[in-house]
Design goal:
By secondary structure, the chain is α/β, with parallel strands linked by helices. The protein contains 10 helices and 9 strands. The structure holds S-adenosylmethionine. S-adenosylmethionine binds next to strand 2.
Length: 254
C-alpha cells in the first residue's frame, strides 16, 4: 500500500508537470499485474492499455475491471503479451505515458525491452520505471540482522525475496523465492540517455518501511498519513532516497 501510494503521488507530480489538467492521456502499463496504478489512472479520466504476460493475473485484472463503471471499462484495454515485444502490439509513438513497475527485475536483458518501451512514447512522453534498487541490496538483510545475507548482498546484483515471499506484492508465483535482478541508478541513467528518454527525475520508494510484511494491518489514518509524509520526504531527499528498497525513475522522450 505504501509503495502504491508513494508511486501514485510521484507519478501525478510528473504528469502534472508535463500535461494540462484534464487532458486525457494514452497510458500503457506493461506488466500491469493487479492494475492498481492503471485503474487509478483510468478513474482519473485517462485511456489505459494494460499489457500482461501472465494469464492468471490478466484474469484477475478482467474481474477487477468488470466491477468498474461502463465509462472506465470503455477506455481500458487489456492485452495478453510480453513487455519485450511491445512492437508486435502497438505502433511507435502511440502513448503519452508508459509505466513499467516491478517488472524489470524479472527480465534478464532489460535494455532491449526499455528501448522498445521508449519507442512507444510520443515526443515529450513519460517513461515511469519502478525497479529494485541494486545499490542498496544489503539494507534489508542488514536491518533484519542477517549478517551473512548483508555481506553477500554487497557483492551481488541479484536479489532473493526469501526473507518473506509476501513482501513481494504481486510477484508472479513462479518467481517467488527465486533470485531476481536489481538495477543500479547509474546504469539505468545511462540506458535511458541511450534510448532517447533521458532521466528527468527519480525517487526512492520505501526507505523506512521495507521490513514491514505485506499482511501487516495498516496503522490508524492519522499515523498512516504521517508515515506516508515521512516516506515521501525521504524518497525525494539526499542521501535517504539512495538506500530505498525501490527506485522510481522518470525518463522523458526527447
Ligand atoms: C511484481 S508485479 C507488478 C505489478 C504492477 N505493475 C505493480 O506495480 O503493482 C510484476 C508483473 O509483471 C508481469 N510480467 C513479468 N514479466 C513480464 C513481461 N516480460 N511482460 C509482461 N508482463 C510481465 C508479471 O506477470 C506480474 O504481473
Amino acid at each position: 500500500m505504501v509503495r502504491q501510494e508513494l508511486v501514485a503521488r510521484q507519478l501525478d507530480e510528473q504528469i502534472a508537470a508535463r500535461y494540462p489538467v484534464g487532458q486525457r492521456l494514452r497510458i500503457l502499463d506493461v506488466g500491469m499485474g493487479q492494475g492498481t496504478q492503471a485503474l487509478r489512472l483510468a478513474r482519473a479520466g485517462h485511456s489505459l492499455t494494460g499489457l500482461e504476460s501472465d494469464p492468471e493475473m490478466l484474469r484477475t485484472a478482467h474481474e477487477a475491471l468488470a466491477s468498474e463503471p461502463a465509462g472506465i471499462r470503455e477506455r481500458f484495454r487489456l492485452i495478453e503479451g510480453d513487455g519485450r515485444e511491445t512492437g508486435v502490439h502497438f505502433l511507435p509513438g502511440s502513448f503519452d505515458v508508459v509505466l513499467c513497475h516491478g517488472v524489470l527485475m524479472y527480465v534478464e536483458e532489460p535494455d532491449a525491452m526499455l528501448a522498445g518501451l521508449a519507442r512507444m512514447l510520443a515526443p515529450g512522453g513519460l517513461l515511469s520505471l519502478l525497479v529494485r534498487n541494486g545499490d542498496a541490496l544489503a539494507m534489508r538483510p542488514g536491518l533484519a540482522g542477517d549478517w551473512p545475507g548483508a555481506l553477500a548482498a554487497f557483492e551481488s546484483d541479484a536479489y532473493s525475496p526469501k526473507l518473506s515471499a509476501s513482501l513481494e506484492q504481486g510477484a508472479p508465483p513462479s518467481s517467488l523465492g527465486l533470485p531476481v535482478r536489481a538495477d543500479r541508478l547509474e546504469d539505468l541513467t545511462a540506458t535511458l540517455a541511450g534510448i532517447a528518454a533521458p532521466l528527468q527525475a527519480w525517487y526512492g520508494v520505501r526507505v523506512f518501511t521495507d521490513l514491514v510484511p505485506n499482511g501487516e494491518e495498516l496503522p490508524p489514518a492519522d499515523e498512516l498519513e504521517r508515515l506516508l509524509a515521512a516516506e515521501d520526504r525521504a524518497g525525494r531527499t539526499e542521501p535517504y532516497r539512495r538506500v530505498a528498497a525501490l527506485l522510481h525513475l522518470c525518463g522523458v522522450r526527447g
